[in-house]
Amino acid sequence: MTNVATAAQKLYMARVAAEGCAVCRRMGHPDVPCLIHHVREGRLGKRNHDNVLGLCWEHHVGKTGVHSLSREDFEQRYGISEQDLAEQTRLSLY
Predict the structure, then answer these.
(1) How much is the pTM?
(2) Can you list the alpha helix ranges (DSSP code H) found in the chain?
(3) I want to staple 53 with a disulfide (CB 3.0 to 4.6 A). Which of 11, 61, 67, 86 is the partner?
(4) Would you place residue 1 in the very low, low, confident or very high pLDDT band (cuts 50, 70, 90)?
């Protein structure tokens, strides 16, 4: 069974993508194109289309990205968790 996004969720993800990479923004580089990253709770958590953030290729799947580093290493490297980045993104849109 697939977790298909609703029209509202698709619109939200488009708005998140338009914000650019959340990590790059924190580093003073706004408007860096990004991919949508779904924050998952637990090791095998389900995709939640409402809990997303934008990450550039490097911060998403590159050597220093969330999918290459452990959650703890990502948080230590950037000083913020992916969940907190998602919350900051959500707050910036509303």
Answers:
(1) 0.89
(2) 7-19, 22-26, 57-61, 71-78, 82-93
(3) 86
(4) very low
